[in-house]
Amino acid sequence: MVSEKSRVVFSMDKVCLLVIVSCALLNGAISSPSPPLGKKPSQCSKELPDSCALCGRYINVVLKAKNVLNGSNFNIEAKLSGVRKQPLLYFLEQAGTISPGFNKFKSTYYKGLGYFIDSINGVEGSVASKTFWHILSGNKALECGVSSYVPEDGETILFNFTTYKAAGYE
Ligand SMILES: *[C@@H]1O[C@H](CO)[C@@H](O)[C@H](O)[C@H]1NC(C)=O
Ligand SMILES: *[C@@H]1O[C@H](CO)[C@@H](O)[C@H](O)[C@H]1NC(C)=O
């Protein structure tokens, strides 16, 4: 089936993006080992403690999602206060409860890599248009995905709808 085939290609492309991101993480880890963070090996730890919902301290994080490329341009924000320190995906889920645009995000799970954000607020990246949701802290691209990145207190995370090229992956 043609649609099945194109879906596989689409997924492989996303895996490639994730792998690029993982490679960036490895390079970073080799050149500048980060100090231990409690019992976790790094912020980009793929294996998280089962009881993480109970172990993180309460922090404040701002999530933003910006789309200047697709017809329905938007710039949404969710200020999360007093949320347990956990992987970014959890904050994204919480953001949906206070800012409706974040309610409409879709993700796909890839074994060993974690969740990849497919769409936010109805805007979806595609291989055809070479677009995706790029995740940044300040102006710096995150070195890992939403399943492994753990935000710091006071951090602002931007989900920016962009092209592979603009993000430096092409
Ligand atoms: C906006 O996104 C939709 C759905 O992903 C897509 O069909 C459309 O071509 C996009 N429009 C622009 C201007 O990129
Ligand atoms: C967000 O994406 C737009 C569109 O590609 C780009 O012009 C802009 O520089 C990006 N912003 C950041 C902070 O990367």
UniProtKB/TrEMBL annotation:
Domain of life: Eukaryota
Domain Transcobalamin-like C-terminal: 108-162
Signal peptide: 1-31
Keywords per UniProt: Signal
Pfam families: DUF4430
Keyword Metal-binding on entry: no
InterPro entries documented for this protein: Cobalamin_Transport, Transcobalamin-like_C
Protein name, as recorded: Cobalamin binding intrinsic factor-like
Organism: Biomphalaria glabrata (Bloodfluke planorb)
Name of the gene: LOC106056016
